[in-house]
Amino acid sequence: MLRGHNLMYRILLLVVIAGLVQPVQAAVDGARLYTQNCAACHGAKGAGGVGVPLSLHDFLDSISDEYLRKTIRLGRPGRVMPAFRMLSDDDVNAIVQHIRSWGHKPERVHTAPVFSAQSVKGDALRGKALFAKNCASCHGANGEGGAGTGVTMSRPRNLPILAPALNNPGFLAAASDEMIKATLMKGRDNTPMASFLKQGLSEQDINDVVAYVRAYERSSGAKTAEVLTSESAVIVRESPYSVEETVANLKSTILGNNFRLIRIQPLDQGFVDKGKENKSRIMVYSCNFNFLNEALKVDPRVGLFLPCRVTVMEHKGKVLVMTVNPKRLSAIFNNSELNRLCEEMSKIYVEMLEEAVL
Length: 358
Ligand code: HEC
Ligand code: HEC
Hints:
This protein has helices at about 1-25, 30-35, 40, 55-60, 65-75, 90-100, 125-135, 135-140, 170-175, 175-185, 205-215, 245-255, 290-300, 325-335, 340-355; strands spanning about 235-240, 260-265, 280-285, 310-315, 320-325. By secondary structure, the protein is of the alpha+beta class. The chain has two domains: about 45-225, Cytochrome Bc1 Complex, Chain D, domain 2 (Orthogonal Bundle); about 235-355, TATA-Binding Protein. Helix 2 crosses helix 6 and helix 14 (about 325-335) packs antiparallel against helix 15 (about 340-355). The site of one heme C has 25 residues, from helix 3 and helix 5.
């Protein structure tokens, strides 16, 4: 009896708690959304990684919520930072709130940048010379940003953060002149980005540099960051040969193209009992190590998609050879430096598949 009562009591308590908790659960969970969408690059607590740190006070103090919202929505085309168009406004706001919780005054309502000086008036031509002297070494001669992702296999975690692209349409649309000015005045502690007031520039010099950065909006450079367009996500060719013959052809094509053959196995190997595998669906794994090394230097995430896999399978009485179109990876990576490599790879794949079905 007592036990029964106890149980009833517990169930009741649970119901009451659930009732209390529900409205909170129903609200969008910014921490969860951040973990799902951002943490892989910006770190679980915003300390940075492939992406720049987001938890620095100097950063949080010099930007508005609008800057964060626009950056999330627009991304930085061609610069690794994706555009999150699928998130709802509530989702984006919840992520922004979560990022704000790392600031030292989470109770403050951030609607405007701290340096809300009147609109910045500067001389872009003077700014151009100052930029070449003070900024180009990190941000590139035309504000195109540092190369690579800043992360290489051997890079210790605490080494320099990659300088963002300033001529990027996503950055220019999100950043106000005041935000850029604040960044130059204050710098960002614990990053390579110094305070240029402390580096000896005057406030007028800084205004001139801001005017120069803003002028990228009118130059063509801001529009060059593009992802490759591709007709389809997969490259498919029909083979006139049997699965077995096609695999054999593919094997010699792979070796002829300076690829190393890694293994050949049924698609369902490991998923069905040994010996019961379907012999009409075969995966061929190979790798071109020169390409791999070149691509990994540009962007280590390339490793996620390698080794190269080609599938040979029978489908509705036809034998098909197919592989992921590397051009599509360009869109996933959002890294225009990879475009040349993806394009090259796509061509090699098409040639290999066509040779195998010749
Ligand atoms: C020593 C390298 C270095 C130099 C020199 C440098 N920066 Fe930076 N800059 C960085 C890095 C790294 C960051 C990213 C900091 C971070 O993690 O928040 C950055 C961030 C910025 C940002 C913020 C960009 C964004 O996406 O939030 C602006 C704007 C900027 N720099 C402008 C300039 C200008 C203009 C100059 C010259 C007056 C300059 N920087 C000089 C390395 C540098
Ligand atoms: C695939 C990696 C990646 C993912 C995922 C990613 N970012 Fe970024 N993010 C970057 C990189 C890299 C930059 C620097 C841009 C550059 O190099 O020009 C950046 C820049 C930013 C900036 C500008 C920082 C500054 O200093 O001004 C913000 C804000 C930002 N990201 C927020 C987010 C949020 C929020 C999410 C999740 C919704 C997210 N990012 C997801 C890689 C990523």
